Predict the 3D structure of the following.
Amino acid sequence: MQIEALYSIYKQYPKISTDTRNIIADSIFFALKGANFNGNAFADQALESGARYAVIDDAAYQKDERYILVEDVLTSLQDLARYHRAQLQIPIIGITGTNGKTTSKELLHAVLSQRYNAFATRGNLNNHIGVPLSILSIDAAIEIAIIEMGANHLGEIAFLSDIARPTHGLITNVGKAHLEGFGSFEGVKKTKGELYDYLQDHNGTLFLQGDNTHLIDMVSFRNINKIIRYGFGADNDVIGKLLIANPYLAISWKERNKSAIYEVSTNLTGSYNTENFLAAIAVGLHFEVPATLINQGIAGYVPTNNRSQITKTDRNTVVADFYNANASSMAAALENMKVLTAVHKVVILGDMFELGDDSYPEHAIVIQKAKELKLDRLIFVGEEFFKHRSAEAEFYESTTDARKAIQDLSDSFVLLKASRGMSFERLLEVL
């Protein structure tokens, strides 16, 4: 089926389903394949559960006109999203980065929603499937959208940019993550920089952290005409300052060459989040959101999904920050522990995944940084950290072992930081 014909059906039934466990009534089911399943085999079930059509790529499963046969289901989903994007006449802000992209996306949405009917990527739907699904979730009522784009291999941001076609863009930062796929830190910069390439080639607007030397270097050899800078230095268009980080953040900010200074208290911890606030402020100002509404959006944002999320239990105060972890986000989280005031500070760190050949030295660096803090208790969890075990800290090979060891922990401010696969929510349960 030609994409125009498929789009005509989508306009009638503009909801997409990909999982028969959560079929949306009158949606189009895309029978995606995975490593351990063939979506074509679930087409019957999808239709029985309320889907209007099923897009399949195996003729053996086609029974009537409700089964739309295409050459490849995933490619058709992506092409449909491209076609839909071409019909949309709204600004789309593409956002990527090693750390902070989801928090920044949500802050941008909180600010822009004060004035616009804004859409933002839901959850972490930021890959080759999630971005098309996000684009296809944008209806005629949406006035502006923020699309998060993730990557772990070269070329992915270029591919996702071609689908989302951002008019504006933001890279939060670049750091050592997914090195198995990128090959090196330079590979990270090259891939994330593909968003800059797209903005350069399509005369887009860039929001730049103007104090970040890596990002400045990435911009220096590209020809991007419209750049709005935010950061801490006086040369930025939006200038911010961290006022309080104990544990919730309060910041002040102003526009360059203007005298008015604004202050806002937040529900986020982690001094590293200050630049995420400034990004949202810069975006809000660009789209003419008044300063009072910008602050209202920031103050009202409450983090979820274990990203810089403070949880007060019966016995401890815990920073749950174990949705993801890499070398740079670990360093930032440890730096934040320095500025926090607490009688007893405890850090529990879990393995960082997908670091490839750099895993051993990067885990060693994290251990050294953590030891320098001289905390009341220092705990490392996972096979990679365990390779560096010594008498200077506690080392546990598994989350199960660590869980047993921390059951008596009380009256402490605790940082929980690890890659998602370490299942640190099991530790939070006993703290």
Q: What stands out?
A: The first helix runs from residue 3 to 12. The radius of gyration is 23 Å.
